[in-house]
Each structure stands twice: as structure tokens, then as C-alpha cells.
Amino acid sequence: MVNRILNTQQGLFAYTNMMATIIVIFFLVVSVEMISQRTRSYLRGDGEEQDDIVQHFVDLVRNFPQRMSESAWQ
User: What's this model's pTM, rounded to 2 decimal places?
Assistant: First the structure.
């Protein structure tokens, strides 16, 4: 479905809409990853839930390419 949306926008030369769609997908993936990491941390009892949420978000965005490349090779 997302692929069809991006292809349609590319065909209509709506590159700003296409970029907005890619950014929304990126933030959706990062937010799901952040919620997942927070939930695992809480269940393990690591005590990381007191950390700054903004710093955690920045760390996720910085390490995102590395995590995705590692998961592709597994």
C-alpha cells in the first residue's frame, strides 16, 4: 500500500508529498522502536525508564542506520 502511494506521488511529480510520506514512515518506525525498547527495559527492570526521553529519541535516530544494517545481515 505504501509502495503504491509513493509510486503514485512519484508519477504525479509530487516529490514534496513523497518526501513527507517517507518522513512519516521513518518517524513511525522510530517511535515503534522506542516504545519497544522502553517496554523491554521496563519488563527487565533495568531502571532506564527515568532517562530523558529526548536523549533516547536522539540516540535512536543516530543509531538507526547501524541497527537496520545489522538486522539485514541476521
Answer: 0.52
Q: Which tens digit of pLDDT belongs to each residue from 6-35?
A: 778 777 776 777 788 888 888 888 888 878
* Interatomic CA distance for residues 62 and 18, integer angstroms: 23
Question: DSSP letters along 2-67, please?
Answer: HHHHHHHHHHTT-HHHHHHHHHHHHHHHHHHHHHHHHHHHHHHT-SGGGS-HHHHHHHHHHHHHHH
Say which DSSP state 51 is in.
S
